[in-house]
Amino acid sequence: MKILAAIFAGFMILSFQFVQTDKNHAYAETLDHVDIYTVQKDDSLFDIGMKYGVSEIDVMKINHKESEKIHPGEKLILPKSVSKEEKELLARLVHAEAKGEPYAGKVAVALVVLNRVEDNRFPDKIKDVIYEERQFQPVDNGAINEPADKSSKKAVMEALALEGKGNDSVYFFNPDETSSTWLRAQTVTEVIGNHRFAK
């Protein structure tokens, strides 16, 4: 019996390396499923989000932080990020939809897709949102298959870092290129370059 107890205790020590307490609750994650980041000098949550493609808000939530203050040496759990393939697909869409638009417009296009993933009116995966029938012209005309430029890839990483901090836009359109009265009737949240963003 003592051997079983010793084996169980050893398993618990190896499995639960990171434990955080919060009043009456304890949170434990296995190291096999968690990425832990050690904060460096001059880091911000936004910088970390950009580097790893994760939302600042999600980093705060998973680490039970009430403010954006972080300190060198502090260890932060990083939430799961979207896959490399999803980032690449989203960057190709941004490249095709926002070619020639300001950088802020590229970030906003990526945020529209991320907002749709969180909105129950739309599919809950990036790929499914992008390939939903008749939603994005680059899917219909094949431009989605063109490689993304560096600016579009960076815009995707910034959008992932800012996810949840935007204006909840789930549509965008160029008023000079659409005759959709339904789209034009949606509440415009911002105008960037030639695009109007709406919800």
TrEMBL record:
Organism whose genome encodes this protein: Cytobacillus praedii
Lineage summary: Bacteria, Bacillati, Bacillota, Bacilli, Bacillales
SMART domains cross-referenced by the UniProt entry: LysM
Signal peptide (residue range): none
GO MF term list: hydrolase activity
Domain LysM: 35-78
CDD domains membership: LysM
Name of protein: LysM peptidoglycan-binding domain-containing protein
Superkingdom classification of source: Bacteria
